[in-house]
Amino acid sequence: MKKCCVIALFLTCALTLLAGTVMAEDMPGPDSAKLWEYITTVDPYTEWGFWPDHEGMQDGRAPHGPKHKVFVNATGLKCMMAPVMPGTIEVKENYSEDEKELLVITVMYKIKGYNPDAGDWYWVKYMPDGTVKKAGKPAGCIGCHATRVANDYILVHEFK
């Protein structure tokens, strides 16, 4: 291999690693205020994608609203099988039946080492203005999502 190709390959790898490090440093810890700022300002969740088998507005069920949209960050969308990578964030907008009123925003955020007994997930329930209703390791969230442990606690997407 020519020297210039080796140097170019090295620089590409170094920049890729550096970019990943910077991105990881930008991620918040298990802090609901910092997570809200991250998903609404730093990396707005409304610009993320959807799970390929759960796109756009969908029917919901209790305890979430009757309608919902689930957004997934790039880290999560890269995952082809469970468990997903740390840094994965899933944001669910929970709507009224007529789809006109945003009721609450619920978030699952995978943080390495945060909660090994429940897949390392950090859960938050926000009001639309960012007010926190519950955060951390809510028993109700864990209990419901634990029905899908093999799918890394993710209910709305099926890993193949």
N-to-C order of helices and strands = HHEEHEEEEH
Counting structural domains, the number is: 1
The first-level CATH class is given as Alpha Beta
Q: What name is given to the CATH topology?
A: Chalcone isomerase
Q: How many runs of DSSP E, i.e. beta strands?
A: 6
CATH architecture: 3-Layer(bba) Sandwich
Strand order of the largest sheet: 1-2-3-4-5-6
Q: Percent helix among the residues? A: 25-40%
Rg, alpha carbons: 18 Å
Q: How would you describe this structure to a colleague?
A:
This protein is an alpha+beta fold and 160 residues long. Helix content is 29%, strand content 22%. It has one domain (29-151): Cytochrome P460 (Chalcone isomerase, 3-Layer(bba) Sandwich), CATH 3.50.70. The protein has 4 helices and 6 strands. Strands 1-2-3-4-5-6 form a 6-stranded antiparallel beta sheet. The chain is globular and about 40 Å long. The termini are far apart. The relative contact order is 0.13.
Task: Quickly describe the structure.
This protein has 160 residues and is α+β, with helices and mostly antiparallel strands. The chain has helices at residues 3-26, 32-42, 74-77, 139-145; strands at 58-59, 67-72, 89-95, 102-110, 121-126, 132-136.
Q: What topology does this entry show?
A:
Blueprint: H1 3-26, H2 32-42, E1 58-59, E2 67-72, H3 74-77, E3 89-95, E4 102-110, E5 121-126, E6 132-136, H4 139-145
Antiparallel strand pairs: 1-2, 2-3, 3-4, 4-5, 5-6
Using brief descriptors, characterize the structure shown.
alpha+beta; 160 residues; Chalcone isomerase; six-stranded antiparallel beta sheet; 6 strands
